[in-house]
Amino acid sequence: MYVKNCIYCGSTDLNAEHVFGDWLKNFLPRKNKKRAVAFFRGGKKDNKPQPTSMNVINPRNSPLVSWKIRCVCKTCNSGWMGDVQENAKLVVGPMTNGKSILLDHASKAAIAAWATSVAVTVEYDRHHAPAITPEQRSAFREKKLAPDTFKIWIGKYDCPDDRSVFAKSTHSIYTEAEILADPNKDPTIQNTQTCAFGVGKLYVLVFSSPHHEMLDMVRIKPKAAAVLDQIWPPSPGTLWWPKRAMTDSDAYSIATALRREILKITQN
Ligand SMILES: [Zn+2]
User: Fold this and answer.
1) 75 and 9 Cβ atoms separated by less than 8 Å
2) Residues within 5 Å of ion ligand 1 by Cβ?
3) How far is the CA of 111 from the centre of ligand 1 (A)?
4) What is the mean pLDDT of residues 238-244?
5) Could you tell me the pLDDT band of residue 105, with boundaries at 50, 70 and 90?
6) What are the residue boundaries of the structural domains of the chain, listed by start?
7) Comparing C-alpha atoms, which of 101, 92, 79, 71 is closest to residue 11?
8) Which among 193, 116, 196, 91 has a CA at the least distance from the CA of 154?
């Protein structure tokens, strides 16, 4: 979706924002390409499940690290978002090279905030309708932390040919009580999303929904838990990243697993 105003503060002084952060060019090879990017749209309209569509973006395969989207103003980009990038750099950078690392609370929070920034920015690519809510964006801007309505996992995936994977699915999920409380509410506006992306050897899975019940219900399966660590909300203590490296089949099935869970929950 194209925007004329900063998605965080409303300013018209827009800047093209690097999806992953410009500093990643110091860690990733220039030949690192964007793989076929799959966007899934789902949800319910008039109580019927909507057809799923999948678009492949960027057929030119430009380097992943130079992927930019125009949706953030210069002040946000160089101000609070610059702090998010700065905090993430020292930990995310080596992880994209696959370096084993001990993550404490601050590192988990730094990776989660950076992953939130990626998940938000990518929604403003031309093929997409945003599903991260304005309240979630405000909470992110205010605290420079992933919102408490996000769940984030990380794994290690060595994508063949130094390419990357990106899959996203969006959904509109409203409770009956919400619709009854506000007759003007448009129940087709998307408010729940999952996205999975690989940057170098770091694989990230982000789920967000304004519904705490959905956050509780949507869980990764034991097979995915064998290769992923949840970093947000952070559990107490430290963790060694990575667990065992993911296979191609892990990476692709995990990218769409939460979408299947969400559809199962909402279609019941
Ligand atoms: Zn701004």
Assistant:
1) yes
2) 6, 8-9, 11, 73, 76
3) 21
4) 95
5) very high
6) 14-266
7) 71
8) 196
